[in-house]
Every structure is written in C-alpha cells, then in structure tokens.
Amino acid sequence: MPWSPRAALLRDLVLGVLGIAAFLLDLGADLWAAGQYARHGRYLWAALVLALLGLASGALQLFSWLWLRADPAGLHGPQPPGRCLALLHLLQLGYLYRCLQGLRQGLLAWRQEAPSEFDLAYSDFLSLDISMLRLFETFLESTPQLTLVLAIVLQSGRAEYYQWVGICTSFVGISWALLDYHRALRTCLPAKPRLGAGSSAVYFVWNLLLLWPRVLAVALFSALFPHYVALHFLGLWLVLLLWVWLQGTDFMPEPSSEWLYRATVATILYFSWFNVSEGHTRGRATIHLTFLLSDSVLLVVTWVTQSAWLPGAAPLQLWLPVGGASFLLGVALRLIYYRWLHPSCHWEPDGVDGARGLLPPDHGLLPRNRRASQLARNFFPKARAEAAVPGKGDVNGAL
Q1: pTM
Q2: Who contacts 265 (Cβ-Cβ below 8 Å, separation ≥6)?
Q3: Residues 6 or more apart in contact with residue 391 via CB below 8 angstroms
C-alpha cells in the first residue's frame, strides 16, 4: 500500500523523535560510563570515553556549521543570527538544533491538508542532512565507543551493568543510523524504486553482521595490546585516507573543508564500507572487504597466540567461530541483497512508491540537497544510469 504524503510525513516525524531519543540515550550512557570509571579510579578509561565523545561531537558540529554556511541565503527562512548559530555549534548543540528544526518543518507540513511541494521538498532537505550527520556520528563516536567498552570488558574479565547499557545503546545507535541513512538516500533518486521491509531488513542485518567481527577483532587486539592499537589505527587510517583522496572526492562546499570529509570517510572505512565516488562499486567494495578481512585475520592471529594474557581465557575460544560465522553470513546476505534486493534491480517510476518526490521538471526552485544527492548517485550507480535514459527519471527533476 503506497504511503500518502501526509502519512509519510507522520512516519518521518515518529522516526525523527525516535532518532533524537536514541542519540540522547547513547550520549547519556557514555557520560554515565565515564562517570562510573572516574568514580572507581579508572581515570584513563574515563578520559578515553570523553575524548572520543568530544572529538566526534566537534566534527559533527563542524560539518553542520559548514553546511549551513554553504546553503543558499534565505533557504532556511527565519532562524537565529549567524553568531547565535555559531554559538550553538560551539556549545555542541548544533546537531540537536537541526533535529528540532527538522521536526518543526515536518510538523508544519503534516498539519496542512495538502502539503505544498516546497514544504515537502524542504522537509526532505533537512532530513537528509540529519541522516548524514547521524551516520557520521555513528562511526566517529558510537562504533569506537563500542570497541572501547568491549576492550575494557575483555581486559577486566567482567562487565558492569553500565557497560552493558553502553554496549546495547551503541548497537541501537549504529543500527538506527544505518537503516535511516539507507532510507533517506532513496529520496534523492531521480525515480525511487520499490524497497520493501524485507529489503531494508536484509540490508540492515548484513551491515551489522560484517561490522560485528571487525569491532570484535579490534577490541580483542586493544585488550591485549592497548599501547599499540593507536598505531594500528593510525597506520590503516592513513592508507585509507590516501585511497579516499585518490578517488577525487568533491563533497564539501570548499576545498579546505574537503579534508574533514575525507578524514571522516577514512574512519568509516576502518570499520565498514562506504562508497565515495561514482561508477560501479563492485571492484572497490571487493578490494576494501579483502583489505579489512586480511587486517582482521592478522589481529585475530595475534590475540589467539596471546589469549592467556586476558582474564577468563576460556570464553575467548568461542569468539573465533562466532566472529567467523557472523562474517560468512554477512557476506552471504550482502551477495543476496545486491543480486536480488538492491533497489536498482527493481526499477519502477516514482509514483508507485507513494513517496513525496513526484515533481515535474519545472520545479527547479525547490530545495535540492546536493550533498545527499551526490552520495545517492554513488550508492545507486545503476539507478543513476537508468535515470540518464530519456523517459526514465525525468519526472523528478527538482528533488
């Protein structure tokens, strides 16, 4: 049953509220864990938690501020003066301001009996930025925090209640960001193909199944060799940063700020796949998966030979088959998804999806999120090729 525009807006409002709740829950769990570490004299662990939190929040606010500055004048209507916006971002409140702005716009459009095309397009514009920021925050903060908590649990030989809360909230945050980002990108397609709940679920599951063994391998290595994990990350991060640079990214509004994006993508690639350039991605994805698998195997070999260093070494014998099975199942589901469930394999006009992007080409003044559109072209290369064919995709030239 296709979604009507108002029903889609209501759905997005609910998802937006849940996204803010998940973000605040994850933030509260991290601050709680840092306080507990400091209370028990584990000042280094508390400092690491706060450092990861501060670095990720700073990068997130910088992305948000640079994007706001690059947006066309008057696009966002009445809003606080530039100095107030800068102060909000300096106080690490810029992301929450964007979330509230998106909810306000969505509520404004939902209250209309027949929402205007501009209000619908502007709602999409805001939600796309929020989804991208949420994804960046996930891999800059939630995933490293999850790795750190797992390393602490493995090193200490036990898990406290607040650590279990941190692990659960990190998984919720990562899951939510991946699914929300995948859903948001589809609003940028020239014509949106069908994407059922099953396709979304498979996409979500294979990402988590491939992410979990990677996080586990790094966490075990960190627990055994805490003084060398920073060197390991820095070495791989530099290689991945070079790879991203060689692909000639052009995402940020200014060349000087492009390195912030490249550094963020290199961090994402340390844990998971993220496409940064147009064209068929099978070769690049295979190279990245092989590279990450080889590195994870080396880490596993290292900690298997030194497992006696950790308290309660017996359970470690279970991690290897669990991680291996998770990886193999994730690869199988990934192949199934791209072979039969990827949206570009079921190309149909926009109207059948019931989403709110059905706009004629003469609506050129409607807001168009260039940043998200570029990522969508990278993620759906076949869809982009189909859209270039005359008669396909040109019904949605504005969004």
Answers
A1: 0.86
A2: 240, 244, 249, 274, 276
A3: none
